[in-house]
Design brief:
By secondary structure, the protein is an alpha+beta fold. It is built from three helices and nine strands. A nine-stranded mixed sheet has the order 2-3-4-1-5-8-7-6-9, with helices on both faces.
Length: 167
């Protein structure tokens, strides 16, 4: 485990925050997100919320997305792994996400990226086997407005700075 000088050490008996997950979504690698999106719509009755050649985002009807279909870049991504990331919506606000970010840093968990999805902010990280997970904090709690933002910004995934909290 690597340590960074800007991360305060744990004090004896100090407890780290743990996530209180509210909702989840899954992102899957696929050959063709547009074709796969049609299948999910036809077979599972899902609604397409946003789509482009790199991804298609699908909803079961309430949340802005339940399944993201991500174009696999290599054949190795298809079939053997299948999961691009598992999103865990946390209970709480942006400060709670910042606390969880601080907890991940203190535990030496590799951070992949932090992104602004317009409907919320995500902190992506890897488990010990390299599986990607995301703590997601909704900024928009109205699902209809979340869908509108997802559509308007075409499922934005913009890098964003987030300051960790270490309290």
């Amino acid at each position: 485990m690597t340590t960074r000088p800007d991360i305060p050490p744990l004090q004896p008996g100090q407890r780290l925050p743990v996530p209180r997950v509210q909702r989840t979504h899954v992102a899957l690698y696929v050959r063709d997100p547009v074709t796969s999106g049609r299948w999910y719509a036809e077979v599972l009755g899902m609604e397409q919320v946003a789509s482009e050649p790199r991804w298609t985002f699908m909803s079961f009807g309430q949340k802005h997305h339940d399944i993201a279909l991500i174009k696999a870049q290599t054949p190795a991504e298809l079939g053997t792994i299948g999961l691009q990331h598992y999103g865990l919506e946390i209970a709480g606000d942006l400060d709670e996400l910042r606390r969880l970010y601080g907890m991940l840093l203190r535990r030496g968990v590799p951070i992949v990226k932090i992104t602004d999805h317009k409907a919320g902010i995500g902190v992506y990280f890897n488990d010990p086997d390299g599986n990607r997970l995301e703590f997601f904090c909704e900024r928009e709690h109205d699902d209809a407005e979340g869908k509108r933002l997802m559509t308007q910004y075409n499922a934005a995934s913009d890098p964003i700075e987030l300051q960790p909290l270490f309290d």
